[in-house]
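Tutorial handout. Part one gives the primary structure; part two gives the three-dimensional structure as tokens.
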Amino acid sequence: MILEMKVPSPGESITEVEIAQWLVSDGDYVEKDQAIAEVDSDKATLELPAEVSGTITLKAEEGDAVSVGAVVCLIDTDGESTATPSAAKTETPKTEVVPNPGPTVSTPTTYASGTPSPAAKKILDEKGIAPQSVSGSGRDGRITKEDAVKAVPAMGTAPAHAQRGETRKKMSMLRRKVAERLVSVKNQTAMLTTFNEVDMSAIFDLRKTHKEAFAAKHDVGLGFMSFFTKAVVRALQLFPDVNSMIDGDQQVQYDFCDISVAVSGPKGLMVPVVRGAEKLSFRAIEAEIKRLAIRARDGQITVDEMTGGTFTISNGGVFGSMLSTPILNPPQSGILGMHNIIERPIAVDGQVVIRPMMYLAFSYDHRIIDGRESVGFLVAIKEGLEDPVQHLMNGNAKKALEL
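Part two.
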């Protein structure tokens, strides 16, 4: 019997996915539930498992965009296994010298040599390339859309005898969607960033005192993220306009704190959500962040786990960033950027002392968050981090850490 395997819906509103990588080859014998492909949606990369055991015939190529419900492969259940199931392919994905430009726009016969077609002219204008610098391959030397796609800005004269080249590869659907969202944020919001710094000494002392007992009892480390999540929740409750979004001509304010946490995954940045953070203990926050980070690292994160969120925390400090202006995660109105912790000399009570200091950056949508609120919000976070026992632990560190 021949089974047609169709693309399942990875989530609401998603109508198309891209075949990122086949994990088997045409003609391989596959076992039921074996991962046979990785598919990219505009929100995440997911594995496609075989629905039955049998011999597989591929009906789509890597890089193809296919609609949800389309047939991507056939599995012959009468096929017999002649070897162990095919392991995931490990060869480097092929790079394309020229990205697929789609159908070439036909050019009217009135075009003179070196004149671009309308589609080609639009592409050249976007690239900032003069038509005179492009050789046309169309009839009578006309510049086609494909010529414009291939054209690159002049890079100057190469040194004598230099071997210089370039490679091109198609961006994944996930990366293209991220690019579109980032551009739309810049164009559709009034984004500003305010900065502050925080003395991390109190948190360092708490972790030094309690981290071993915390890890032994709860089987999870006492990191910085639980302190930052708690501090953000407190600040959101003090400044509720930050915990809101714009929907048309209305402002939607939330009485809960679903905190998106940016983590690095194999396919790029992902932002899973810690839901109901206002109700979670230090232990529960650390455990949930660990669970989501592992799922993101292993490519098992789901669309639902990354959907929603009322505020985002991004920790560029783990990569060595000193300072940045984090970009909003739409439709949210605020994002906090954490940075690396550096011992710096600061003045305390008229004396110069060395303290572990971190710069904080708070980007916000100025359409609904005023300057006074943005500064007050970031100061509230600073207060919580510099005196966590008082502001985040109700005066009792051991009880808050469940020790």
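Part three, for discussion. Residues 84-111 have pLDDT under 50 and may be disordered. The chain has three domains: 2-76, 96-154+163-168, 189-400.
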